Amino acid sequence: MSFLIFWDNSSPQGLQGPVARGISGILERPVEVVENPVILRGFDRTRNQYNASRILTDMQDIYTRQHGIGDHILIVTGKDLYIPGRDFVFGLARPNIRASIVSTARLRNGYYGRREDVYDAIDRLIKEGTHEIAHTLGLDHCDDIECIMFCPNTLDELDRKRKNLCPQCREKLTLALEEPIQD
Ligand SMILES: [Zn+2]
Ligand SMILES: [Zn+2]
After folding, report:
1. Which ligand is closest in space to the CA of residue 173?
2. What is the CA(143)–ligand 2 centre distance, in A?
3. What element of type H or E holds 6?
4. pTM of the predicted model, to two decimals?
5. What CATH number belongs to 3-141?
6. Distance from CA of residue 105 to its chain's centroid?
7. Residue 182 — very low, low, confident or very high, per pLDDT cuts 50/70/90?
8. Nearest to 149 by CA among 165, 137, 163, 138
9. pLDDT in tens, 117-167
10. Domain extent listing, the chain
């Protein structure tokens, strides 16, 4: 079982190292970062957003059919994401193909008219990146407002979360990480 981040060139550069280290620290597993090789389709001109579901469907085609890699993949993109029925999403995961995506668009202070702070962006990306990867490991949402698996609807709810899992989710994660490698 390995963890791979596809860093899209639309996302802020220079954060790769700290974000990968942060996620790796929470998962207690190595996390590798590479440049995103996937073309992100699913742009909706009227919304000026990308359909996250569509992007993960493309991942399914590319990575399970052509390569069949068993990695857990997280795409980090600067594009603003939505799924049908929702105004936006911070990220999305598709556990059956172990693929997920997170957007930096709404993780930056600048989006909310606040002063940019690279450490805020890194912290949020670590939280939401770990959240999506944990979904690919089978974890669901959690009611504990400080747990990484809590599903935030706003930036404040996201910032309220700690960079860790609650004891129950930690136990689920540990079990999931112990599962034998499938391929
Ligand atoms: Zn979630
Ligand atoms: Zn939890």
Report:
1. 2
2. 7
3. strand 3-7
4. 0.94
5. 3.40.390.10
6. 13
7. low
8. 165
9. 999 999 999 999 999 999 999 999 999 999 999 999 999 999 999 999 999
10. 3-141
Q: Is 171 a catalytic residue?
A: no
Could you tell me if 109 and 117 are in contact, meaning their C-beta atoms sit under 8 angstroms apart? yes
DSSP line for 117-152 = -HHHHHHHHHHHHHHHHHHHTT----S-TTSTTS--
Q: Which residues are found with C-beta within 5 Å of the ion, ligand 2?
A: 142, 144, 147, 149, 166, 169
What are the backbone angles phi and psi of residue 49, rounded to the nearest 5°? -140, 165
Residue tagged active-site, from 28, 132, 146, 179: 132
What's the first-to-final CA gap in the chain, in angstroms?
A: 9
* Residue pointed to by tokens 């606040």: 114
Residues, Cβ < 5 Å to ion ligand 1: 151
- Examine the pLDDT at 116 and tell me if it is beyond 90: yes
Centre of ligand 1 from the C-alpha of residue 56, in Å: 15
Residue for token pair 């390569």: 67
CA distance 89 to 81: 6
SS3 165: coil
For residue 151, which ligand has an atom nearest its CA? 1
